[in-house]
What we know:
Layout: E1 3-7, E2 10-12, E3 18-25, E4 34-39, E5 46-51, E6 59-61, E7 69-74, E8 79-84, E9 93-99, E10 117-118, E11 122-126
Parallel strand pairs: 2-11
Antiparallel strand pairs: 1-3, 3-8, 4-5, 4-9, 5-6, 7-8, 9-10, 9-11
Amino acid sequence: xxxxxxxxxxxxxxxxxxxxxxxxxxFTLDYYAIGWFRQxxxxxxxxVSCISSSSHGSTNYADSVKGRFTISRDNAKNTxxxxxxxxxxxxxxxxxxxxxxxxxxxxxxxIRYEYDYWGQGxxxxxxx
Length: 128
């Protein structure tokens, strides 16, 4: 049974921070690349960040979040995190984590069609 469960979303003021968690069960997360995506109302789901398997150790970010967001993993907890700083109203979206079993390296672009297992999402709202 493969599951991804996102948590950590909520309401935050502009300029604030949140840390999202993606907890995996049913597979060993550190073997695979994990992507973070977001979907705002009326928009397509877009790639935010990706972290490659531990053997590769590379990360990738969308231009819109680079310098503000940081992706990391804790293999002992089988969890990937997305630290989000300097949040803006345009960051408001449902955030999802995803994996494709067998993919261990992030593409330069974070492409949602490359992923086949998704969590349920966690809502992030940035508003004053």
